[in-house]
Every structure is written in C-alpha cells, then in structure tokens.
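Submission sheet (multi-component)
Chains listed below:
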Amino acid sequence: MNSAKVSLKPEISSGFDLEKIRADFPILKLKIDGKPLVYLDNAASSQMPQQVIDRLVRYQTTQHANINRAVHYLSEVATMEYHNARCKLQQFINAREDREVIFTSGTTDSINLVMHGYGRKFIKAGDEIILTTLEHHSNIVPWQMLANEKDAKIRVVPINDKGELEVDEYEKLFNERTKFVGLIHVSNALGTINPIKRMIDFAHQHGVPVLIDGAQAAPHMNIDVQALDCDFYAFSAHKLCGPTGVGILFGKAALLESMQPFKGGGDMIASVTFEETLYNTIPHKFEAGTPPIAAAIGFGAAIDYLTTIGIARIAAYESSLLNYATECLNNIPGVKIIGTAAEKTAVISFTIDGIHPHDIGTILNQDGIAVRTGHHCAQPVMQRFNVPATSRASFAFYNKETEVDALAAGIKNVQKVFL
Amino acid sequence: MHTNSLYQEVILDHNRKPRNYGKLDHANHHAMGHNPLCGDRLDITLQLENDQITDIAFQGESCAICKASASMMTAAVKGKSRIDAETLIHEFRELATGKLDINNPHHLGRLTIFSGVRDLPTRVKCAILPWHTLHAALNSITDASTETNHDSAQAVSSKS
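Outcome: structure written.
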C-alpha cells in the first residue's frame, strides 16, 4: 500500500469569508421551532461541512471495500485512501513518521490504548501518575482503573480561582515514584489553555512520559508534536468538523513499539498459530479489526478543509469572538463566567444567579440556541468551583457576532422567566 | 415543542417557594434520589403511620422542574394512603413519559401541568426524580437513581 502516491493537496480552497464558510455547513440553515439554529455546543461536537459530507459519499459510492486484504481494485483504493488520511493527520500534527499515527475510535479510545498498552506494562505498585484537576473524565477514569489494578497512586495538580493550573504545584509533585503524566491541553469545561510545553519539559527532566489529551486543542490551534516533544497526543475527528467514531493517537515510534497491544484480532498480527502470535508492526499492532475506514477518510477531508482555511486564522477569529462574547456576558447582571484564564479558547462556562443550568439550557433551546449544560464530564472542575453544573457556550470559526448577541438576549429572556 | 407551557407560573412559584422543604426529624422512611446525568440530588423524608403519609418533606439541589415537581408532589401525597400515593406515582410517570391519556380519569389534578416535559426527553427525568425517590422511600429503598432500573423496587433496600 505504501507504493500508492500520497496526495496531500487539500480538496477545497477558500479564504476566510465568514458567509462563504457558513454556506459550507448545511446544518446551519436549520430552524429550531421556527428560529434559526444558533449552534454554540462546538466543544461537544462540531458540525460537518459539505466538503466532508461529499467525501464520505464519494468513498461510499465509488471506493469502499475492506482494507489491507484483498488484491482487487476497490480494496487497493480503499487501502490507499485510508493511508492518505493517516498521512494527512501526520502532517497536521507534524509527526515525524506516519506510523506514529494510530487511528482509534476517538480520544477516549486513544487514552485507553495508552493505559492498556503502556500503563499495564510499565506502571507498578507504588508508582505515581500525575493528572490535573482540569482533566475530562476520559483522562481520569482509565488511570483510576489502572491505579486500582496495580496499587499505584494518582496525584492531582490543583487549579487557581481563574481555572489555571498551578504549575509550581505540578513540579512539586514529582519524585522517584512518578511514572506517568496525563495532561489536558485545553480544558473542555473552562477553555483554559495549559502551558503544556513547559510541563512536558519538566516531566522529561525526570524521565517521565506525558500523554496530552488534545481533544479541545486540535480544532483551535496548530499542534506540532515534535516541537512539543510530547510522548502521546490524542484527539477526535468529530470536534474538527469530521465524523464521529474516529480519532487518533500519536505516539513516539519507540514508545509504541515497546508497548503491548490493546486489542487482539485481525490486522494487528504478523502470524498466528495456536502456540504463538507475532504482532504486526506499528501502527497496525494497535488497529485490530476493520477500522472506521470511511470515518478516517472523512477525517482526512476535514483536515484538508480546516488547513485550507488555516488553523492560525481560525484561532485569531475565534479569539475575537471570545473577547466579544466575554464582554457581552460580563455586562449582564447575575451572570458569572467560570474560568477566566489568561489563555483561553472560545469556551465560556457560566452560571446565572438562582437559575439551574438545565432550566437555562431548556429555555435557550426555545430560542434555537444550543448550549451544553451539566458537569461537562469534568466533575472535579465543578467541585473546585463549588457548582453542581454550568452552562457552556463554545464557539467555532463558523459562529458569528450576531449569534453572540442572540445568546446574550436569550440569557436575558431566561432571567425574565425566573424574575 | 412548547417550552413556555412548561415554565408556567405555578411551576415557577413552587420553584421560588417550595412547599414542605426541609427534613423531618422523626421520619420513619427516607430515600435519596440522584440523577447522575445532571447531578440533581433529592432527599425525601416521610412519616408513615398505618400506611398513611402523615408528614413529608424534601430537600436537595435541583433544577426548577425537579424542585417544583417535588414541591407539588409532597403537597399532593401528604395525608394520602400509601396505595393512593403509589397510584399517583404511577400516573405521574405515565404523564411525564407521554403514556397517559389525560382525557381518561386520573388523580393528578394540577400536576398535569408537567405534561409538557414529555416533549423534552432530557428533562423527563428531572420531573420524575421526586416521584422515583418517593417510591423508593415508601418501599424502604434508600437510594434511587434515574439511571437504574425504572422499577426501583428491585434496588437494594434497608429500612431507615
């Protein structure tokens, strides 16, 4: 399959023209109860542009077969396109080699892969794993399962009142028992961008590998895994305008090679007898069974779409939206923004005095406004701020200022209902 | 979907000024209700004498729908027999899940204002949690969760 010519040329070309971009997303034309959809739940899942939808249709209608198997035409095309998608992801995060990019079912699956493949092999009784208060449950629970199994210990980096990691406290947690660090790049609940480069460097000074949960970072900033020097980096396609059911784990080749497989099955083997199985090379060792071929190819198309617009331009635009939205919400009495870090992505978690987030969400929905309400799978963050839940507006590059205005008006309407 | 019809003045009033709010000191039945999806918690204490609910109170942290439902529920079942309370629990669950035909005879009275939640699947549990917890308290099941089997009688019980 490596003989196939890899085309990394993006499949679309457009400048940052907001109305043109919005026209790419068919779902943005939806009306909810007669009101235009105002989709502000992008941190949960982003929407898909027509270019990606078209790519999925083209794959299913002209290219689909199982991969890495048969010698027939479709199987070769599908295998090549799947490989192309891997190469697009490799380039997107500037990984050294394409075999360092493993397709998984998403960020959670990627983290579980590292827990099983690395953690269960190398973490022993008495060892310590450092996590942070900002972690999503997906980067807490697998490590708790491992700690319980191995009698290892989890140490937690605290955050300050703005929702920023206390990096000095992080550095104090290190000792000779520290064996692993799991670190969220951008907080899904608050939007805080963590100083991961400094934290990775510090862990490496102690010889400790670092896994970065990049689910909320990859859609909003350039990721360079070589510059970061992280050992593992995970994210999902569906937060980058791609399909659900696929994500990647980047791992340094030497680490991946040292790890045990996570799942056993077809494709991950070199040879099988009932006496012994020899595992395939990376990345195949970690891709047992038929992978989400269509979704991975759609992921590649989503990467093309985003890189054509330009991640840096996306980040700059979203930053201006964040500033505007922060100002609008700060001007509404009774609204409190939770998470005011100096470095943030376009995520605003907020509470309204005396009104439960679920009531806020239901009444905003009446105006066609989609926000997330709840604990955002980050209960330790909620506990830190002493709130059971928040409402969260999370923006994407296709959101516009008038949608921020709609949110502000919607919040005032919620307050009126409860007056 | 008619969200406005859900957030009616009666519900907003019960949310603002919940009836029977607090904890009974001498309750002989109690249960904790929990909705893990949103973190809502509800504590129901009640006094059952000769199979009659002579007193009942609730407290907890929840959304307006849940709190108003709990407030109106306690007002509705206070003084009622256990059997009558169970009938209301059954009818309210049917109402909230859209299975009750309110044109047929029922005992819910003003509680039918919660019928709007049937159009909001994510909020059905908010309205039902108090009833679920009451059922657990009446049947001496100390912990009720919206995420366990709907027939909470199957949960582990321990009499308070």
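Remark: Chain B touches chain A at residues 1, 3-4, 6-7, 12, 15, 37-40, 61-65, 120, 122-123, 126 (CB under 8 Å).
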